[in-house]
Write a structure and sequence with these properties.
The complex is a heterodimer.
Chain A (H helix, E strand, L loop, with lengths): L1 H12 L9 H27 L12 E3 L2 E3 L5 H26 L3 H31 L8 H32 L8 H27 L3
Helix pairs in contact in A: 2-5, 2-6, 3-4, 3-6, 4-5, 5-6
Chain B lengths: L16 H23 L7 H20 L7 H29 L1
Helix pairs in contact in B: 1-2
Classes of the chains: A mainly alpha, B mainly alpha.
């Protein structure tokens, strides 16, 4: 019965295109290309206004108008967050490999692991934002606060959307509506997830580590 | 075991779990190096260059292996790299423009 449903599902999705490629995958790549520009704009804004705030707090230790400010960044903490997100990319690709082998149990385990790692990252970001706020940095406190919170906030929103997509896939799989022949759905979600990971690779370097 | 991997025209089979784990180990190692060089005063003159190179390698590894750009049809790579080039050009243009305005 399950096989019949899977076959019918596959036939439903089977369609010819002029490129010979699946349109859904093309659209996802086109979306990711446009998202490069979205994040490129915010990263550029952060770079342009870096070190131009007339008042603190600063990302790293600084003196502005004779006032000393401790830096708000905690590099070891953010490094662990970056590592967690990188490892979530591994679990995501293992989920895809599992469904391509028809291993549904493996798919569910790796999807859940990816969603959990993503949640740890978002939770860590929430904690980081709260700590920064307590140190006097807000969206409107200075140029650093505005560009930092907008950039990392939008990234966090992307990760949150990714977690919702992962949990939806997990639920679909648990309901038996995600046959191995429909592995492209997992692959598309994976592409989105890996994209938020590569964006964080850039943000971690440009925002947190690059010297002034 | 039968696989349900769809190989598009112009594409190749994706790697297995072992290769993915090796890439993840490399990514973790590179992140460790990034954080380590941040704290080493001796490399401070080249810190920006080092960090950009390490970040680019990590980006390339994820895009090539986890996003399968190395194995899939080149049209996907063209789309993504096109967007990436536009984004980098936008950043360089804005930085050049605002650098002149602020100086």
């Amino acid at each position: 019965m399950e096989h019949a449903v899977a076959t019918a599902h596959a036939a439903e999705h089977e369609h010819r295109t002029s490129t010979g490629l699946d349109n859904r995958k093309l659209v996802m790549w086109a979306f990711l290309a446009s998202d490069c520009l979205f994040f490129g704009s915010f990263i550029s804004a952060y770079m342009i206004y870096r070190g131009r705030s007339p008042s603190g707090p600063c990302p790293h230790e600084c003196v502005l108008n004779g006032v000393h400010y401790d830096g708000v960044f905690n590099i070891p903490y953010t490094s662990v967050s970056a590592f967690v997100l990188l490892m979530s990319s591994l679990t995501m690709v293992l989920a895809l490999a599992a469904i391509q082998r028809g291993n549904h149990r493996g798919l569910r385990i790796w999807l859940l692991a990816t969603a959990l790692l993503g949640s740890v990252f978002v939770g860590g970001q929430y904690f980081e934002f709260t700590t920064f706020y307590q140190k006097g940095l807000s969206l409107s406190s200075n140029l650093f606060g505005t560009t930092f919170f907008v950039l990392t906030g939008f990234h966090g929103a992307h990760v949150t959307v990714g977690i919702i997509m992962l949990l939806s896939l997990l639920l679909t799989s648990l309901l038996g509506r995600l046959p191995a022949s429909d592995s492209l759905t997992v692959e598309l979600t994976g592409l989105y997830w890996h994209f938020v990971d590569v964006v964080w690779i850039v943000i971690f370097t440009v925002v947190y580590l690059l010297p002034m | 075991m039968a696989t349900h991997q769809e190989i598009e025209p112009g594409g190749h089979a994706h790697p297995g779990a072992k290769e993915y784990v090796l890439v993840a180990v490399a990514l973790g190692f590179l992140t460790g190096i990034e954080v380590a060089v941040y704290y080493i005063d001796a490399v401070r003159p080249w810190l920006a260059h080092l960090l950009i190179i390490l970040s680019a390698v990590k980006f390339f590894l994820v895009a090539s292996f986890f996003m399968h750009l190395k194995f899939d049809n080149r049209l996907f790579s063209s789309l993504f790299v096109g967007g990436l080039i536009l984004a980098i050009s936008l950043g360089i243009s804005l930085l050049a423009l605002f650098h002149n305005l602020f100086v």
